[in-house]
Structure formats: structure tokens, C-alpha cells
Amino acid sequence: MQQTRRRVRNYVLGYIGVQGNMQIWWTPQIPIIYVGNPKAGCSSIKQSLKSAQAQHYERSGRTFSRVADPHTDDDCLKRKGLTPSNCRDRYVFSCVRNPFARILSAYLDKAVAGDHRNYPELRNLQSVTFEGFLRALADHDPLLLDVHFRPQHLNLNYPIVSYDAVFYLENAEPMADFLTQIVPEFEFARFSPHARGAQQKLSAHYDPATIELVRRIYTRDFTYFGYSRRLEDALAAPGRMLSEHTLLPHDADQPPPPCPSRSTRYMVPLENTLRCRWLIERRLI
């Protein structure tokens, strides 16, 4: 019943351009909105944002509460309470990862190191080989996949939601440059409690069948984010960043962060997402 309700809700929201369970994180004093994308540096980014916000509080002498777990909201990094109108004065960014490396990392973390029966899409599997894992994902509605397995463009609701910048985990330097211009205290510090060394294990897990499955399941991720469909290129970033849906090559000058004052039209999809999330949290839809 609950899954049926989710399915109906997701399709209705999708019709109006809303991804109901986007992971939207924001910092109270730093004008930033980070859209979470699990298995693409999510823990490191959230931990770094918490640290930057904590420095703001410490400098002003304000008492605050900070939780060590980057996935738990606190005074430094919040999931609730952001009003649609406040979006217009904040920079919106996220980070993506090559689909070959990302889904292998998810497999090693959730299906090998963890209990695959925790995930409905894997519950019917007796043993979880990498190919069996991918075939199970391919048989499911992408909208209903767990966020660790779901295509990244769905996690980000891209390109419907407008981003000031989408960065590549394979090259984190542009992200650090961008964010330090907004808040000098920001320092990108890697924090990877669930890292599984997927980059070093690509050749051991991929064969023609699994390569083709990843290309099929994540075809839009390859297209939207500019990634090569060749496994040999899985560790390379396509460019510096995506800025206003344009891929900036590695040798391009990185533009400064744009003025955060947004027109209403620019922010409508994100504002609609926040309104729908408010209704979902209160179980009104």
C-alpha cells in the first residue's frame, strides 16, 4: 500500500516537474543550498558545509549544536525549514559521479558490505552478484529506486531544477574554488565512512554484460552530465563543471558565482519542490 502510494505520488509530482524526495540541505548563515546525491561525495560535502557553518557560529560567539554524523541535520546543516522565497538568495549546487564508479560503489557498500534485503529492489535475490544486482535495478521503476541506486538526474531533478553549478567528484578543485568565493571558511575535506575503493575495482567487476547494463540504466546520466560511455574513462571528469546547463572544459576559466538574487521564474521548480515536500512531511499528499 505504501509503495503504491509512493508510486502514484511520484508520477503525479513528476508530471508537474517535482521530485518529491530530493535531498535538499541548507546552511543557516551561508547562502547555499546543496542537493544531496548519495555515492557522489555526499558525506564529504555535508561534513565540509557543517564545518564552515560551525566556524561562523564560533566567530560570532553563538552557542550551537553539531552532530558528528554528516547525514544528521543539526544547527549547522538543516533539511527542513527552508521557505521557497528564501531560495532566491542562495546558491544552488550539487555534485555527480561517473555512473560506472558510482553504482559499483553502491553495490559494494549496500549489497556486499551491507544486507541487500534492506532494499526492496534487491529483496528477492538469493545471492547478489554484480550482474544480478544490476539486472534487479533494471527491472525496477527508476523513480522508485533507492537514492543510492537511482539515476543521478532523478536525484537532482536535472535539468528541470536550475543549478548555479554541478561539479564532478573526479575533480573536486572547481567545487572548492566556487564555494570558497562564497564563504572563505569553506574547505573541502574528504570524509568517506562508506568508501569502498570502487575506483580501484572497476576492471575486476565489469565485463561486456555489466557495462551494457550500466549504460542502459544510466543512459540519461551519461548524456546530461557529459560522461564518456567507455569504462576506460570512468575516472576522468568531463570538464570543470556544469554551469547553467553548459559544460565548461578543463581549460576554461571558471566563472565567479553568479549574483544570488534570482528571478521568480528561475527558481519555480525548486520552490515547488519545497512546497510539495512540506505537504509530504505532514502526510497531506
Protein model, in words:
- This protein is α/β, with parallel strands linked by helices.
- It has helices at 2-15, 42-60, 99-112, 130-138, 152-156, 173-182, 202-205, 208-217, 219-225, 264-281, and strands at 23-26, 32-36, 91-96, 165-168, 241-243, 246-248.
- It has a 6-stranded mixed β-sheet with strand order 1-2-3-4-5-6.
- The chain is globular, with a radius of gyration of 19 Å.
Low-confidence segments: none
Main β-sheet description: 6 strands, mixed
Total strands: the figure is: 6
Structural class: alpha/beta
**Could you spell the SSE succession in H and E letters?**
HEEHEHHHEHHHHEEH
Tertiary shape: globular
Round the Cα radius of gyration to an integer and report it.
Answer: 19 Å
What is the helical fraction, as a range of percent? Answer: 25-40%
Mean pLDDT: 90
Count of helical stretches: 10
End-to-end distance: 14 Å
Question: How many distinct domains?
Answer: 1
Strand content: 5-15%
Strands ordered across the widest β-sheet: 1-2-3-4-5-6
Q: Could you provide a short overview of the structure?
A:
Helix content is 39%, strand content 9%.
SSE topology:
Elements: H1 2-15, E1 23-26, E2 32-36, H2 42-60, E3 91-96, H3 99-112, H4 130-138, H5 152-156, E4 165-168, H6 173-182, H7 202-205, H8 208-217, H9 219-225, E5 241-243, E6 246-248, H10 264-281
Parallel strand pairs: 2-3, 3-4
Antiparallel strand pairs: 1-2, 4-5, 5-6
